TrEMBL record:
Swiss-Prot/TrEMBL catalytic activity: ATP + protein L-histidine = ADP + protein N-phospho-L-histidine
InterPro entries: HATPase_C_sf, Sensor_HK_TwoCompSys, Sig_transdc_His_kin_sub3_dim/P
One CC-aspect GO term: membrane
Positions in coiled-coil regions: 130-157
Entries under Pfam families matching the protein: HisKA_3
Keywords: ATP-binding, Coiled coil, Kinase, Membrane, Nucleotide-binding, Phosphoprotein, Transferase, Transmembrane, Transmembrane helix, Two-component regulatory system
GO molecular function: ATP binding; phosphorelay sensor kinase activity; protein dimerization activity
Signal transduction histidine kinase subgroup 3 dimerisation and phosphoacceptor domain ranges (all copies): 176-242
Protein name listed in UniProt: histidine kinase
Organism: Paenibacillus mellifer
Gene3D superfamilies: 1.20.5.1930, Histidine kinase-like ATPase, C-terminal domain
Transmembrane spans: 7-23, 55-72
Amino acid sequence: MESWSIGKRWLVLGLAVALIYAMEPSPSPWLILFILLYLALDLTALLLHKTAYRNAIYGMMIVYCAGCAVYVNPEFVLLLPPNAYETARRVAPRIAVTVLLAIPLLFLEGPLSEIYMFIAAISLFDGMYLRHLLQRLNRQEEQLDQLRLDQEKLRKQLHGNREFIRASEYTYKLEERNRLSQELHDGIGHSMTGALIQMEAAKRVLPTDSAGAEKLLKNAIGISQESIEQIRQTLKNMKPPVEQLGFHRLRNTVEAFGSRSGLQTSVVHQGDLEKITPLFWKIIHDNVTEALTNTAKYGEATSVQVEVRVLGKWIQSVVTDNGRGQAKIVKGMGLLGMEERTAAVNGTVIADGTQGFKVTTLIPYVPSGK
C-alpha cells in the first residue's frame, strides 16, 4: 500500500515537472532544489514508524506544495490532491478535503485547471479504492487471527484428548492388572494353599498310614492340576485373538505414518480375519509399511488407503494412494523385497501406477473344511 501511494505521488511530480518545462519559458533555477526537498520529505515519512510523526510530515508536504505553487511554479498545485487524500486517509474527513481541494480551481486557468481536476478525481477514486482494500485486508487479518485462535484451541483440545486417552489406557491397564491379581489370589491362590495343606498332612501321616497319605497326595495332585489348568485358561482368556492383534498393529502403523507424513490415511477390512495367520499378518504388515514409505518418498500424494480382504481362497492387501503414479514400474529394492516375502508363502505382488500408485499383495490360503 505504501509503495503504491509513494509511486503515485512521484508520478504526479514527474507530470508537474514535465508541464513546467513544457509551459514555462524560463523555469526557476531553484526548481531542482524544490523537487529534491519534496522527495526528501516523502522518503522521510516513509521511513518513520510512529504514525503521529508521519502525519506531521504529510501535513508539511501539503503546506510545502501549496507554497511552491504560489511562489515558485503553479504546476506544483498538481501535487496537492494526492498528498491531501493521503492525509485524509489517516486523519481528516474525505469530504472536507474534497471541498478544500476545490479552492485552487478559483485561481487556475486553461489546461492546468483541467489537469488539476483530473488528478483530483483520480486521487479521490484511488483513495476510496485504497480504503476499501485496507478494510478488506483488516477483515482478512481479523479472520486469520480468529483462525489462529481456533487452531490453537483445537490443538490444546487434541492434546487434552490424547492425554485423556493415555490416562484411560493406563487406568485400564491398572484395572486389568488388579483384576488378574485378584483372580489369581481368590481362585488359584486358595487352590494351591489347599494342595499345600494336603501335602503337609500326607507328610505327617505317611509313617503310620501310608494308604491315607497316598490318598492325600492324590488330592493334592488333583488340586494342583486344576490350578494349572485354571492358570492356562485365564491366560488364554487374556490373550487377544490373532486377528484383532494383527489388524490393530496394522492400523496403528498406518495412523502413525499419517501423523508423521501429514497424509490422510484410512484402514478398512472385509471378510473373516481369523483366516490370516501370524505369518501372513507379518508379511502384510511389512509390505504395507514398505508401500507407505514409497508413497511418502515418491508419490506426491495427499491421501492413502489400506484395505485387507479375506476372499474365497486368497488374502488380499491393497495400498492405494492418489499421487502422480508411474506408467512404467521400475522395481527397486523395496518392491523386490515385498515380492520375496510374499513368494515365500506362494503369494504374489502386483504394482499398478496408472492412477496414483497401487500395490496389491495376494496370499493363498486353504479354506477350512477343504
